[in-house]
Amino acid sequence: MDLQWVLEGPGSEPELRVLIDEVDLIELVRRVELPDAEREGHPDIAGGYAGLAAWRLRGRLRDHFLGDEDSHLYCGPREKTVLLGCTCGEPGCWPLMARVEVSRLEVRWDEFEQPHRRGRWSHATLGPFVFDRRPYEATLTQAETSTPPDPWRTDAEPP
């Protein structure tokens, strides 16, 4: 697993992208959602996600991706973590969520879901993804130390 800050274009804000075996999680999800989206007549909404903006997280990035109690971002099941948000910038509008389980040696992501399509879309073939805990936490630390500034802070020094 790798995390990268991505800027999609002028005027956009940096978003955190998740890569699994060097493939963007958004693409992995798109492949899984496409049959259900096509069945509904809307193939364009498959994988319609964006990475998360750091300032939208409740607390530290590290805590969020370790499944802390607020990692559901108040937009889905409390026992799940938002891994991707909506392209509009509001994670709760169209979140991809998963259960994040942490043990002494590993971190596991499973039971993926799009809560607005629960029961109509299946994410059963997505994951589970199992990561060695030490490298996972090192990746979180690296992403946290390279977090772009909050665009809404008014006390920040001008560039």
Report on the structure:
- The chain is α+β, with helices and mostly antiparallel strands and 159 residues long.
- Helices cover 21% and strands 25% of the residues.
- The protein has three helices and eight strands.
- The protein has helices at residues 25-39, 61-65, 133-145, and strands at residues 2-6, 15-20, 23-24, 49-50, 81-86, 96-102, 106-113, 129-132.
- The strands form two sheets. The protein has a five-stranded antiparallel beta sheet. It has a three-stranded antiparallel beta sheet with strand order 1-2-3.
- Strand 2 and strand 3 form a beta hairpin.
- The longest helix is centred in the first third of the chain and has 15 residues, at 25-39.
- The radius of gyration is 15 Å and the shape is globular.
- The N and C termini lie far apart (32 Å).
- The model has no long low-confidence stretch (mean pLDDT 87).
Give me some keywords for this one:
159 residues, alpha+beta, five-stranded antiparallel beta sheet, 3 helices
